[in-house]
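Write out the 3D structure for:
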Amino acid sequence: MDFSFTEEQRALSDLADKILRDRATLERLKALEQSEDGYDAELWAELARAGLLGACLPESLGGNGGGLVEACLILEQQGRHVVLLPLLPTLIGGAMLLARFGSQELHKKYIPAVCSGEAILTAALSELGTDARAPITMATPNGSEWRLNGVKVAVPWAHRAAGLVVPARTVDGRTLVFLVPADRRGLSWERQETTNWEPHFRVTLDNVPASAEELIGTPASGTQVLNWLVDRYIVGLCAIAAGACERALKITAEYASNRKQFDKPIAMFQAVGQRMADSYIDNEAVHLTMWQAASRLAEELPSDREVATAKYWAAEGGSRIGHAALHIHGGISIDVDYPIHRYFLWLKQIEFTLGAATPHLVRLGALIVGGDEQQHSST
C-alpha cells in the first residue's frame, strides 16, 4: 500500500489547511454554532475562489481533475479545524455522484454552480430503522414522471441546498436515485438537533414529482449508484474523523506536556502516557484504514472490507480518542472557550452517524469468511 501523495495533492491539503486555519477562529466557530443558519457564506466563497470546491471533479466538467482522494484531503482538514461547512454532502453526496452517473443536463445545471460556490447539494440517505442502501421512501410511476413519498432524517444542510439526492424504491423492489430541486412542491423540512451543531433536517416528501431527467443513472442501475454513493460518503465521513482525531491528539499531547502536577508534566505519569499511547495507535488506525478504503475506491476496486474496516475504526477509535482527550484535560475540557470539547462532540456525532461497533465487526467478519459481498450495514 502506497499512501504517499503527489505534490499537487499536498499543495491542495496545505491550501485547505491555511484557509480554514485563518478563518475558523474561536470567535467565528462560536458565532456559527450559536446562529440559526450555521453557514459561513464568506468562507464558502473563498473555498470556491481557491478552486477547492472543484478539486475533486473532472476537468471536462469545470473541475481540477481530482477525485475521492482529493475530496478526502479537504475533508480531513475540515475535521482538523472542526468548522461547519457543507463539504461532504456537496462534494461527495452531490457533485461527485453527478459527475460519475448524472446526465449532461444535470451536469450543466449543478456542476458549474458547485464549483463557483453558488450551489450547495446534499444527500438524503438516512431513514428511521432502515439501511441507507435499502430505502423505504417510495417512487411511484405517474405517466412519464415519478412521485416520491417518504421521510428522510438527519439530512445535512437541507435548508441551504439547491438540490437533494433522494434514493427511493419502486413497488417491484428496484432502487432509484433522484436529484430533486429543493424548491419542488411537496418537499418540506424541519430542523433536528445534532451533537456538533451541524444543521440537520427531517425531510418529508409528500407526493413530490420527479422527472425522468432528474434520475441519476438509469432505472436499472439504481442499486449500483446508491452503493457507489454510500461507500464514498462513509469514507468521506471517516476522513473528517481522521482530521479531528489527529488534531485532538496533538492538542492533548501539548496540554499533557505543559500541565504540571507534583512538579512534573502529567505526561510523565504512567497512566497518562499509556492513555496517550493508546490514542496514538487509534489515530494511526483511523488514518491508515481510511486511506486504504479511499485509495481502493478511487481506483474502482472492490472495497467492501476496506470500507467496513475504516467505518469501524472511525467510529470506535475516534470515540476512544475523544474520551481520552477529555479525561486527560480534566476540568478544562468543558470550558467552551477551550477547543478540545469541539473535537469530542464532532467525533461523537460521527460515531452516532456511522453506528455501533458490533454491527461493523459482524459485517466485517462475514466479509472475511466469504459472506455476501452485497450485504451492507447502515450508513
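Residues 222-258 form the longest helix (37 residues).
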